[in-house]
Structure formats: structure tokens, C-alpha cells
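The data are quoted verbatim here:
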Amino acid sequence: MVEAKILNLAITDKGFVVILKPEKSDKVVPISIAYLEAQSIMASLIGYKIERPLTHDIVSSIFQNCGIRLINVIIDNVHIDTFFSKLVIEHNGKNIFIDSRPSDAIALSLKSKAPIFIEEHVVDKAGIVLEDNDTLMKVKDSIPFTYQRFDKEELKETSSENIFTKKEPEEYNNINTNNKDSKKNKEELQRLLDQAVKEERYEDAAKYRDELDNLSE
């Protein structure tokens, strides 16, 4: 198990990605995260206080007021594209391990200034090598997309309401739901729905589900 730092938060054609850099490794581990987790993580990275507390702010406040200390978070497994992690908390003199999504664990680690650890086998399995090139980090190992890094200094001057601009997925906009071939549309929407759920893009998943319901009527 090695300690990892957050290299950057990035946007890809697949959505938001938090990029972890394990110590003494030439690899990084990119983990897909949802919009709200990305907003929480970026707010912590740039030191921006959001007026209305997000879920991670509330949990962090509960920890502080109930004598709970977040010792660290551990990203301990990966299966296909899904990562698994645990929160290690101290309460009443006992260490307790709590299952968590990595996105939530990372967001809470930033709130509590707790270290992030990652198992070596996760780095070996999911780690990739990036080639740094100013604003783009290009993947060397034939991964079919590039990472667009956020400029933290520029984001410090951006209001919390506009840290990210949400856009409709291009695939979604390209679907013609009035097409006579409704069977094809249903299959495509189902594929997008499954992918959105897998990537934890639940707002997009809800839209695809509604479109499927409309086609079924």
C-alpha cells in the first residue's frame, strides 16, 4: 500500500476524472467520478468555500462534532472500471473500516486533510503512464482519449456556482427519438443508460430512463 496524491481533476470525453499519483511510481490512476463529487473535490483543491454545504461538508461536520477522526482512505480494489475504497475512521478509541465510493472517500479526505492510500495491485492493474504537454495530458498506452486539466489558479477566480459548466452528453443530443425505428432507439438509449449508471452519472441516467419510458408509451 502506497500513499497517493491528487495530481489533478480532469475532464475527458467520458466525464470527470480525478487523477491520483502514487508515490515512487511513473504511473497515475485515473478514477471516473460524477459531477457533484467533482465539484466538491475541486472546491477543496482551490480552497473555495461553498455557501450551501454539500454532502461531504455535512459528513465532515458530523465527524468533527461527534468526535470522529478520518485517519485515511484506502483504494483497495478495482474490477473492470469500478474502483472500491474504504474510510478508516477512529471513534471511541477504535479504528473502523467503512466501505465507500472512491469519489466520496477522496472528497472527504480533502475536507479532513487525511492521506489517501492505494494498494499496489490497483496501481499495477489500473495505472497508466501520462505524457505531460502543457494543458493536455496524453495517455501513452493507446487509451482512446485525452485529459484536459483544470487550471487551479483560474478556477480560484470562478464562483462556486460556475466551477463546472454542465453540458448535455453529445450522444444524447444526437439521438432522434422521433425516428420510426423505435427499437433501435430503445437499444441505444438502454446502452447509454447502462453506461451512465456504470459511470455514476445519475442525472444523465434519469434522462435516458425518461426517454425510454416515453418510447414505451
Q: What stands out?
A: The longest strand covers residues 2-12. The mean pLDDT is 78. Strands lie at 2-12, 15-22, 29-33, 69-79, 82-91, 94-100, 116-118, 130-133, 136-139, 146-149.
